[in-house]
């Protein structure tokens, strides 16, 4: 009967363990990333008694996490996708707001300027009308400056956010590497440590899309975007950012491991980091380029109109806005790559705003001479100017002026953007309202001549941009609707990613999550099992007592 | 399927926040009255809305230009009406003077009247607008356009510039009239050539009614002399010579009912010229109102009046000029009137277009309130139901029973 006692003892111990596990599950019902634990119980080896075997009780074989590796991977992927699309969505909504609400001051002040030009054509000699025109031109220039500042701030903010994400990723990967070390040390399955590892991986997958490689003792190596090794065993790659080449504010991602730093491609990362890079380098850059294009168009159209007329003194009209080929602007159009062998300076001058695309180009010096490709990778023909040997003309509205005193080396490259800086540097230059050129320059000058003002007012409806397809205002509308369309598409993508993530989460939770009702039932079950085992003890005792009494 | 407790809560929270965000969106739409608040709400619709906005803006601009043009042209119209009145009273004075029975003092008084009329026309021609710009100076709005020269003749020192206003796509109208055309260039009463009666030999009365170029290619321009000669038997023949004495029209019997056709022109004369009379005609298509009035006053002020045949003929010529000037002014006034009418037409057109595009915009942009309110009701019902059931199911727990 001693067996009965030890069987009861093993039952009590097992029930205690199970009650413990149940309690732990209940306690962690609200813990993020907690996988419920179950106790695996087995019966102890039986005892041979003569010709038969008798049971000897029970024992706790293992305490395990209920964990589905596949569901976890799916969740991690869905998390990255949602994080990427919701980053895109929130950035694009912000840009949508900037263009739809804040930036409206650009087309609005352009309209006001045209109103004043029309008033001028009614009263070409009125100084108050002329003054109003200058004021609205000044407001237009400032509207361009301010939306440009807004977009530049966006750019800086993206870079800061990228740096912030990189820092967090580094903290996580460092911790994951440490956990890997810890796991190797304990040489086994510390459930709490594994849960912590899972939590970190799932946080990491918000920032980048990751892939994990399972190793012994729960050690996991982590790759980002299938190409960048973030954690390998106990070492983590430290990410960083460096200034872009050739455009410094287009920072690039680097990885440092064992003292060696390499530049990483930022097109296959996934997650929030990808969303940030994509927004900065595509949507934001394009929107900014189009805004610049409009600023170039506006400045050039009004300056040309001024040049076509005579001011109140009968002198040819001077520039209303900063010249689009002002040296301060020309200097911002060329960015040499860091690896260039020569220091040849390339000046980009705008010849024809109607032919401009607003995009950027890459110029390279090959064995055959200079070659130009646009941002879509298509090559753009350059023809030499027969009058000017230092000038190369493209059919895209600009020409290149190359310093003849220096020799370019094969392989030298420059990034050319013909339009930047105009929105930022745009200024209204006229100081005296008499300088507005309302009069035409044909025939004898007369202050009452309004023919140039009439022509200037017609710029509002003239298709001056994009090969004669768009008016000045059309460019703005085009950006607004493009950004709006992209924001809408990102919203749809985010909604479906959210649904996918919801399903993946449900799958993980339905397997690994704690259900309180289930735990309550388990608690009663194991409480009863405990009570029953305890009862066995009393029964065994009573049985002994009966035996003792009978022999007394 | 097994549901974990957290999952149950998460699911419900997710449903609730989803419903809340939908309801919030409907509320924003309801409060702004717009279905499209930023481009992202409906990118395709936004393109249309932006285009319609810009179109409406342009139409508004055209309407503003039409208003300004309307003001200018109405001002001009009022001046033209005033000019016509002055012309009418001047012509009355001229006709009064055309009377051989008038005494010298009567004539002097009339001449004074005519000079006053001329001053009134001059003042009108030098009228300024509200900002002090000369209305009829062309583009030289800062300079007084009609001034007397050293000989007291009124000259025009403005230009023929005319201001325009854009009133519709590709359509602009003149909003100012050149004083040169209006005052200095009314047609010569006798056509393309004009008789110089002041220096004519006129023993009898005759009058060049009209001297028109009929065939510009067959015409050689230059002064011509009309001579009345003896046909050999004491009858009056008429011949026309060019400036060098070359014969343009060989002598023919003078007949007022048969116009002479020579040198690509047609010459019509009346009266009873005497043999030996002659008059020179010079090319002059236009005359100015000031010299007409001034000359009429001068003729009346002559001590001998206008009784001499050449003075009578010249005075008659001035009365003809006056008539032509009146027709000229009424043509200009009619042009202004037509432009004013076309402004009204375009304004109506723009207003109709605005209405069309506003309603097109409304269908794209404006909220369908009935639909939105129904949707809001549905959403709040769902929100209510989900909250209530969540509360009920939530209170069910096995722990409550042990």
Automatic annotation (TrEMBL), chain A:
* Compartments, record wording: Bacterial flagellum; Secreted
Q: Principal localization? A: other
Q: Where is each Flagellar basal body rod protein N-terminal domain found? A: 6-34
Which residues belong to any copy of the Flagellar hook-associated protein FlgK helical domain?
Answer: 92-321
- Record has Iron-sulfur as a keyword: no
Q: Where is the Flagellar basal-body/hook protein C-terminal domain?
A: 511-548
Keywords (alphabetical) are: Bacterial flagellum, Secreted
One Pfam family cited in the UniProt record for this chain: Flg_bbr_C
Keyword Secreted listed: yes
InterPro entries for the chain: Flag_bb_rod_N, Flg_bb/hook_C_dom, FlgK, FlgK_helical
Supply the PANTHER family for this chain: FLAGELLAR HOOK-ASSOCIATED PROTEIN 1
Family, as annotated = Belongs to the flagella basal body rod proteins family.
> What is this protein's name?
Flagellar hook-associated protein 1
Automatic annotation (TrEMBL), chain B:
Q: Which gene encodes it?
A: flgL_2
> What organism does this protein naturally occur in?
Ferrimonas pelagia
The entry assigns this protein to a family as follows: Belongs to the bacterial flagellin family.
Q: Where in the cell is it found?
A: Bacterial flagellum; Secreted
From which residue to which does any coiled coil extend?
52-86
The superkingdom of the source organism is: Bacteria
Keywords from UniProt, A to Z, are: Bacterial flagellum, Cell projection, Cilium, Coiled coil, Flagellum, Secreted
Occurrences of domain Flagellin N-terminal (ranges): 3-141
- Name-wise, this protein is Flagellar hook-associated protein FlgL
Supply the source organism's classification: Bacteria, Pseudomonadati, Pseudomonadota, Gammaproteobacteria, Alteromonadales
SUPFAM superfamilies, sorted: Phase 1 flagellin
